[in-house]
Design brief:
- The chain is α/β, with parallel strands linked by helices and 357 residues long.
- It has 14 helices and eleven strands.
- It has two domains: 121 residues, NAD(P)-binding Rossmann-like Domain (Rossmann fold); 181 residues, no CATH class.
- Helix content is 43%, strand content 16%.
- Helix 5 packs parallel to helix 6, helix 6 runs antiparallel to helix 13 and helix 13 packs antiparallel against helix 14.
- The mean pLDDT is 93.
């Protein structure tokens, strides 16, 4: 039987790829609801193709504009607005699974209501876990809800832990491509431009997350995520640079065994797993050929320059609101960098000055 899916953040990168997965498996999933911030042009296209019954637009003016447009359709969904609209999407009785793939923390109220409504939940939003991870996981446990991570690294860990006891974990190892500046000398790093920071060697992503990957702040946030998602201590989380982006993360167990999840760097793979969990389904995505890989390398990051992970660990140790303040300060710094107001290395300076880390 088909499952009804709601996607909060349908016009973003992961949202679009989620719809691509569903497009290829309409026998398994139906799009019941879509939610977005303000990109009603793309949202209109998604409505025409997937015919959701509910659509929520955070921006009230854009929602009114979209509602006017949909009056021309032979099929017109109910249009909801604001945070309350997202909440209604997340808690809708006819929805089986909700995917939270928006950016920022605007979807937090919707996430809480989805958990209370005991929905199946998949999440690809670092900011919400960083800001209120413990509260989210406590509420999920209270309501017997499994939070399925979509990001490739946490999906890899989640998959490696299937059938394993949490007590058996010695440590998890998050892999990192190294971003666009892996292997660069100190001199080469002196005058980094926005264009260089946005040119990720492996993944095609939005500007904000691309800069976070370049600073390794993205990996720092993933440390915080891993702590909450898997109930780990800070010293149980390690990072290695893996330029090939084939091994998406690893788990080392107390008997010395190590499990790794491998695959091509394609977000549709963890998205498909999040949608189909606890099952695996047949797909026609490109396959990895091990014989075509010349090598798989793993290298310790240069924390003396790429300070993102160390700042995240400092925030975890400080506790309280420190992780949330780290997220906010990083958002501000990245926006200033993208606006050409500060340099690349100034991102770290701004974060430290605004958080005391």
């Amino acid at each position: 039987m088909k499952k009804n899916i709601a996607i909060i953040g349908s016009t973003g990168s992961v949202g679009r790829q989620t719809l691509e997965v569903i497009r290829n498996h309409t026998d398994k999933w139906a799009v019941f609801a879509l939610a977005a911030y303000e990109n009603i042009d793309l949202l209109e296209e998604q409505i025409i193709e997937f015919r959701p019954q509910l659509v929520a637009v955070f921006d009230e003016q854009k929602a009114a504009e979209l509602e006017e447009r949909t009056k021309q359709f032979s099929f017109a969904p109910k249009i909801l607005t604001g945070s309350q609209g997202w909440i209604e999407v997340g808690a809708q009785a006819k929805v089986d699974k909700v995917l939270f793939v928006s950016s920022g923390v605007s979807a937090l109220p919707a996430l809480y209501e989805s958990i209370k409504s005991k929905k199946e939940i998949a999440i690809a939003n670092k900011e919400m876990i960083v800001a209120e991870g413990q509260k989210i996981m406590d509420l999920a446990k209270e309501n017997d809800v499994t939070i399925i991570p979509i990001d490739s690294e946490h999906s890899a860990i989640f998959q490696c832990l299937q059938g394993e006891s949490p007590d058996a974990i010695e440590k998890v190892i998050l892999t990192c491509s190294g971003g666009p500046f892996y292997g660069k000398s100190e001199k080469e790093m002196e005058n980094i431009t926005c264009e260089q920071a946005l040119n990720h060697p492996t993944w095609r992503m939005g500007d904000k997350i691309s800069v976070d990957c370049a600073t390794l702040m993205n990996k720092g946030f993933e440390i915080i995520e891993a702590k909450h998602l898997f109930g780990l201590k800070e010293d149980q989380i390690e990072i290695v640079i893996h330029p090939q982006s084939i091994v998406h993360s690893l788990v080392q167990f107390k008997d010395g065994s190590v499990k790794a999840q491998l695959g091509l760097p394609d977000m549709k793979i963890p998205i498909t797993y999040a949608l189909s969990y606890p099952e695996r389904i047949q797909t026609d995505w490109p396959r990895m050929e091990l014989s075509a890989l010349s090598k798989l390398t793993f290298i310790q990051p240069e924390y003396s320059f790429f300070k993102g992970p160390q700042l995240a660990l400092a925030a975890l140790r400080k506790g309280g609101s420190a992780p949330s303040k780290l997220r906010e300060a990083n958002d501000e710094a990245v926006q200033k960098f993208l606006a050409r107001e500060i340099g690349f290395r100034d991102i770290y300076t701004h974060i430290s000055a605004h958080t005391g880390l």
